[in-house]
Every structure is written in C-alpha cells, then in structure tokens.
C-alpha cells in the first residue's frame, strides 16, 4: 500500500470539509493558496453535485451556476464537467445579465442611480420612457427606443436587484446553488450585496466561494476576502501545494503562516536565490515613482549578470519553462527592444491588446504572412489574409506576390514603420485595411498643412504618427513576439494561475502603486491603518510572482533596501539565499 503524502492528505481533508458543507446546505469559502489545486476542488464539488443531486435538479429544471471571470475559465469548467446539463458555467457579466434582463421595469427605474453620467444621458435623451434595456457591446447609450448598458452597469444592477425579494426568489428557483470561481476578483459592491442579501439573509441559496484573497491583484474594485458578519460562511483552508518544491513552499509559508502548505514531494529541494543591489555606490534615480532604483543602464547590467549566473546553473531562457517577471510595461519594453514604439502610445492597451489599428494590422497580418512566406507555408499565408482561393490567374500574379513579400521582409528587417507603410500604400497584395488607409490619408493631409492652423487633437495625432513612422520596424517584430508569448518575459500581473520550472522576478520601482522596500518594512514592523490597501496590493503581487516557480526561484531587487527590509527578506527566504556581491562596476 502506497503512503499518502501530506499534500494529498491535506487535499482530501479540504475536499471532505467542502462536501460536508454542500451536503448540509451551508455556504462556504475554500481558500486555496498558490498551487493548491483550486480548480481541481471546484470541479470535484461540481461532480459531487452531479453524482448526488443531478436527477433532482434536472427534473425541477434549475441548474447549478458556476460564475467565472474569464472565458478561458468558463470553457475549462464546461469541458471538465462534460458539458453536463445541470451545470451553467459562464462569466459574471453573462450570468448577471441572464437574470437581470427579465426585470426590465425595475432596471429602468434604477438607471438614474447607476452614475451621474447616466443621469446626464437620461436627461439629454428626454428621460426613461419604456425603452428596452439591452446589453450587447458594452457601450453605454440611450435613445427613444433602447438603453444600452456598459459592462460595469450590469454588475451594479445585479448588486441592486439582489436587494429585491422577488428577484431573490427568481434567482433561487433558477439557481439554488451558485459557485463563484476566483471569488476575490468579485466587484466589492456586488460581493457586499451577495453577503447581505443571500448569505446573511438566509435566502436559501447555497453560495460556494473558490479562490484566494492573497491572489487579488486586479484593480481597486475587486473585493478580496469575503466574510460573513453572521458567521454564515464555513471557512475551509486547503493546506496543499502541488506545484512548488520544498524550499519554495517554505518561503511561501514564511510569508503566510496562517495558511501553511505541504509540498507534494518532501524529497524535493528547489533552489531559491535573492540578489539585491545595496552594494551599488553610484547615484540612484530620484523623484516620483523611480526613487531609490538603479539607473536604467546599471539595472540592465544587474539583470544581464543575474541571467548569466542562472544560465550557468542550467536555466534556459529560450525555453517555455523559464519566465522573467517584471512589474512595469515600460521596463519590459526597454529589455525587449520596443521602448520607442511603446512611448508612442498613451495607453498600454493600444499596443499590448492591439487596440491600435496599425499594431493590430502588423501583428495579425504582416507578421504571420511573413513567417508563413519564410517557411514556405503558402496555404497558411493566404488563410491569414482571408483569401482561401487567391487570384493567381497567371505566372505574373505569382511573381507579383513573391516580389511584394520579399520586399516586405526586406523592409521589416532593415527599414522603418513608415518605409513599410509607404510601400504597402502602393500595392494591393496584401492591401492595407480601410482604417489604416484612412489614418494614413489623414496623416498625409495634416503633414501638408500649416502646423499653426491645426487644432490640438490634430497636432497630437500628427506627432504620434511622425514618431511611429520613424521607428525601426524591428521594434514591431519584438513587440509581436511578446504579445504572442514567444519570449520569456511577462508582467507579474500577466501570469496569475501559470507555473514555470524557473522564475526570475525583477523587483524595482517604476509604478507609484508599488514600493517593495516599504512592503518589506511593513511586513517587519507592521503597517499604518491608512496603508492597509497599499500593503496588501504589494504583498499579493509579491506572493503571486514568487509562487509561480516549480523548481527554481530567483529575485533581483534593484531598489535600495533598508535594514528592516533586509531583515524581513532574510526571514522570508533564509540568510543563505541572499546575495549582494555582484561584480557590477560604477
């Protein structure tokens, strides 16, 4: 008979406590720390209900609702429960609108309460007069026929309607059991309404919360820890870590002694190395959110030096098993060679989420067809440009495509963004999208005008386009590699839920919401009450970043650390893991 590991014992105990709560009809919160197998527990809970209550539920028609915060999570839950008919898995917005949309009259009455902007919109439209309320693209609008909701409006309306007994009765009849995945990311107003109107009000709905309040890292509106003032939530801690080796788990336990975890393999070790820069004797950066950090060029030298040390230890930075986590997008842009490109945009979403038409065209069309052309995968090439049956009527058509693609590749490697745009403007294989064509025409028009005659908006557009067109197209190539996750780099926010063999976390300044020296000082000496939110924001991101590593974890801290911060760092990771003597010259 095989011995059961402490991790498996802890997992079984948490599952049994969860099943007991479900069988007794008690609301519960499963607190699953990093690597504990939160999704596994959620699926086990759903399958427990399928095995024990599916007949009863299916004959009465209500379903078990499982609310998620991403489409990826929604699809995973559906797949892992074999799309069972009693399970309704969907995002929070889809779920909320599904029940809210049936209360049109009440929603119309509540519209003025949503925000001052809605009050103004309603006044400008002549009031609410029986329009149909819809939720489609998420753009707020009101006219004589319809009221279109914003994404946030759906959540606010759900929170408000939960206070109506009729709404509670309908919700209970349709969904007597509701599970919330990643509960800590729930909007705080909605979370409060759920507790007050469903859990503490004994509404007869079993609420199951799955998540970890230490992994709340997205936005100020998220609720974090959900508690019941009436003690109506059974608290279940899952003291298991199936991800990380023993030494890494020990560090996580030092951070979080109230939820100690057992590692899956007690014989594992794992390597933890902490490098800081206190021995640097040159001038550090001053002012604003960079205060106390190394100069940019010196920080880069420290980073490259640590990478060399890790490479000697066997890290492969070209492998998918290694991840470099950095806090700010502009630091990432500098390290990966697209900083000038990033500086052209006021919002990171414009280039990282491809909201900008130029970036979208380059990343979704030019880069894929160039890769397909270079690898001679011509079917993929024409699939990308939506020409399944390309018009190659004769040999000349083929020669034209080949010539154009050869020239595109030449410009990609040696020219600027403007060089490529000028070339693409003169051909139709491949053609520029209409939006880019319109923006190019506007740029040419503004460029020919007298700058003094332009309004501020036109001047900003002209400056942006002039800067964008002057940038080496190589920066677009590097940006696309990052967007498509073909580099080892990522922001710390971007890897929640992920895991890697080797993780290098770079901790510096660059964002006024994060100060790692202060966080470590607060861990050591306590935090002022008015700094609670700031401390938890820093602590949670630190915990999430450190807990991504399976076997090897390295921290590089470029911010200067105080004595209390160093003491706490030694406590968390062990004095033997702390290294300061890097050979970086002033």
Which secondary structure elements does this structure contain, and how are they paired or packed?
Blueprint: H1 6-23, E1 28-32, H2 38-60, E2 64-68, H3 71-80, E3 87-91, H4 92-100, H5 104-110, H6 116-124, E4 132-134, E5 141-142, E6 146-148, H7 151-161, H8 165-174, E7 177-181, H9 188-199, E8 206-211, E9 234-238, E10 240-241, H10 246-255, E11 262-263, E12 271-276, H11 296-312, E13 322-326, H12 329-336, H13 339-343, H14 348-352, H15 357-374, H16 378-384, H17 395-414, H18 417-425, H19 434-448, H20 456-470, H21 474-483, E14 489-491, E15 500-507, H22 516-525, H23 532-546, E16 549-557, H24 563-573, E17 578-579
Parallel strand pairs: 1-8, 1-9, 2-3, 2-7, 4-6, 7-8, 10-11, 12-16, 12-17, 13-14, 13-15, 15-16
Antiparallel strand pairs: 5-6
Helix pairs in contact: 1-2, 4-7, 7-9, 15-16, 15-21, 22-23, 22-24
């Amino acid at each position: 008979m095989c011995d059961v590991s402490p991790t498996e014992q802890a997992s079984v105990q948490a599952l049994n406590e969860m099943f007991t709560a479900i069988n007794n009809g008690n609301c519960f919160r499963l607190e699953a720390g990093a690597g504990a197998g939160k999704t596994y527990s959620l699926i086990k809970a759903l399958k427990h209900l399928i095995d024990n209550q599916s007949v009863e539920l299916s004959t009465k028609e209500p379903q078990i609702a499982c609310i998620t915060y991403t489409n990826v999570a929604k699809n995973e839950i559906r797949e892992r429960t074999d799309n069972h008919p009693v399970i309704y898995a969907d995002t929070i917005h889809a779920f909320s609108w599904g029940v809210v949309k049936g209360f049109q009259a009440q929603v119309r009455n509540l519209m003025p309460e949503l925000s001052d902007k809605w009050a103004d919109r309603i006044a400008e439209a002549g009031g609410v007069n029986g329009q149909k309320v819809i939720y489609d693209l998420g753009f707020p609008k009101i006219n004589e026929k319809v009221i279109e909701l914003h994404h946030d409006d759906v959540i606010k309306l759900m929170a408000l309607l939960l206070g109506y007994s009729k709404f509670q009765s309908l919700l209970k009849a349709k969904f007597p059991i509701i599970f919330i995945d990643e509960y800590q990311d729930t909007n705080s107003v909605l979370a409060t309404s759920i507790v007050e109107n469903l859990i503490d009000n004994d509404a007869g709905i079993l609420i199951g919360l799955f998540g970890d309040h230490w992994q709340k890292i997205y936005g100020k509106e998220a609720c974090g820890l959900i508690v019941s003032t009436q003690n109506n939530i059974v608290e279940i801690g899952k003291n298991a870590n199936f991800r990380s080796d023993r030494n890494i788990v020990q560090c996580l336990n030092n951070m979080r002694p109230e939820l100690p975890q057992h590692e899956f393999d007690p014989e594992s070790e794992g390597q933890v190395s902490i490098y800081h820069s206190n021995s640097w004797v040159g001038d550090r950066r001053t002012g604003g959110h960079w205060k106390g950090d190394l100069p940019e060029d010196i920080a880069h030298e420290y980073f490259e030096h640590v990478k060399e040390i890790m490479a000697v230890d066997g890290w492969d930075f070209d492998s998918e098993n290694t991840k470099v986590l950095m806090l700010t997008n502009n630091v990432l842009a500098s390290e990966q060679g697209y900083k000038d490109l990033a500086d052209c945009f006021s919002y990171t979403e414009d280039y990282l989420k491809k909201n900008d038409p130029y970036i979208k065209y380059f990343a979704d069309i030019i880069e894929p067809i160039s890769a397909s052309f270079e690898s001679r995968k011509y079917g993929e090439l024409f699939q990308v440009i939506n020409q399944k049956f390309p018009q190659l009527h004769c040999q000349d058509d083929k020669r034209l495509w080949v010539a154009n693609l050869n020239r595109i590749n030449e410009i990609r490697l040696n020219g600027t963004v403007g060089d490529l745009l000028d070339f693409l403007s003169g051909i139709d294989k491949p053609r520029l999208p209409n939006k880019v064509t319109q923006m190019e025409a506007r740029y040419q028009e503004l460029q020919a005008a007298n700058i003094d005659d332009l309004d501020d908006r036109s001047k900003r557009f002209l400056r942006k386009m002039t800067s964008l067109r002057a940038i080496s197209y190589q920066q677009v190539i590097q940006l696309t590699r990052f967007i498509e996750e073909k580099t080892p780099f990522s922001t710390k926010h971007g890897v929640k839920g992920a895991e890697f063999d080797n993780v290098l976390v770079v901790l510096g300044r660059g964002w006024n919401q994060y100060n790692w020296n202060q966080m470590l000082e607060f861990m050591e000496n306590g935090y002022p009450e008015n700094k609670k939110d700031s401390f938890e924001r820093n602590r949670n991101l630190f915990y999430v970043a450190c807990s991504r590593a399976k076997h090897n974890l390295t921290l590089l801290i470029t911010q200067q650390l105080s004595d209390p911060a160093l003491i706490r760092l030694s406590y968390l990771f062990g004095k033997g893991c702390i290294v300061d003597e890097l050979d970086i010259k002033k």
